[in-house]
Write a structure and sequence with these properties.
The strands form two sheets. This protein has a three-stranded antiparallel sheet with strand order 1-3-2, with helices on one face. It contains nine helices and six strands. By secondary structure, it is mainly alpha-helical. β5 and β6 form a beta hairpin. The N terminus is likely disordered. The protein folds into two domains: about 60 residues, no CATH class; about 110 residues, Orthogonal Bundle (Arc Repressor Mutant, subunit A), CATH 1.10.10.
């Protein structure tokens, strides 16, 4: 009985290289999600990079923001002799409204960071709806428009760029995940106004497909 009791008190095994590889292949690792796993990743990141390079994957790790994920290495040019390997990280084009929402959230995050306040940007559903509706064609069916925007919000949340927060008596909130900065970079944001003009032109023309930015 004593040995059994002592075994239950033993600390869990320290994550190893294989564990880190599996967790990264499953998705993003956040510091806030598992401090112990994050600490091990920082200690073993050089080995993780070498390990993943065999699979044509790169480790993207932002220690300041507290996230890490894998992305595929750039594909070799047509005239290069290097073999083209199958992609382990999917690259999926996003619909135009989802791309627009990501751009607007990234701009909001940049403005929030410039304010120098809290590190977590939390928006209500209604606040996100108001961000988007300014750039969408007017609709006589308000409820339908909001439902459509909410569908796009859910897609962005499923992609991991928004985190749903439990409502405590008030309206449901969403935290804008800081990993969004890695997918919509500063250079892309610098061209934001020009892109918005292109977005509005696409919307007016009824084109709902856009592949920039994407989620892979």
């Amino acid at each position: 009985m004593e040995e059994e009791a002592l075994s239950t008190l033993a600390p869990p095994a320290q994550p190893d290289l294989s564990t880190l590889a599996i967790m990264l292949l499953k998705g993003v690792i956040y510091r806030e999600g598992d401090e112990r796993l994050w600490g091990t990743l920082l200690n073993l990141q050089a080995r993780v990079r070498d390990y993943m390079s065999v699979l044509a994957l790169e480790l993207v790790l932002d220690e300041a923001e507290g996230y890490a994920f894998l992305k595929s290495r750039p594909e070799p040019a047509e005239d290069e002799a290097a073999p083209r390997l199958p992609r382990l990280v999917a690259r999926r084009p996003l619909s135009f409204p989802v791309s627009l929402l990501l751009a607007l959230l990234r701009k909001k995050l940049a403005e929030f960071d410039a304010g120098g306040g809290d590190t977590r940007l939390v928006l209500t559903r209604d606040e996100i709806v108001e961000l988007v509706r300014l750039f969408l064609p007017e609709s006589s069916n308000e409820a339908r428009l909001i439902d459509q925007i909410e569908t796009h919000i859910n897609k962005v949340a499923d992609l991991g760029f928004l985190r749903r927060l439990k409502a405590a008596g008030g309206p449901a909130g969403y935290e804008v995940r800081r990993i969004l900065k890695a997918f919509v970079d500063a250079q892309w944001l610098a061209d934001f106004d020009a892109r918005l003009a292109a977005y509005q032109t696409q919307l007016t023309g009824g084109n709902t497909a856009a592949g920039d930015p994407d989620d892979g």
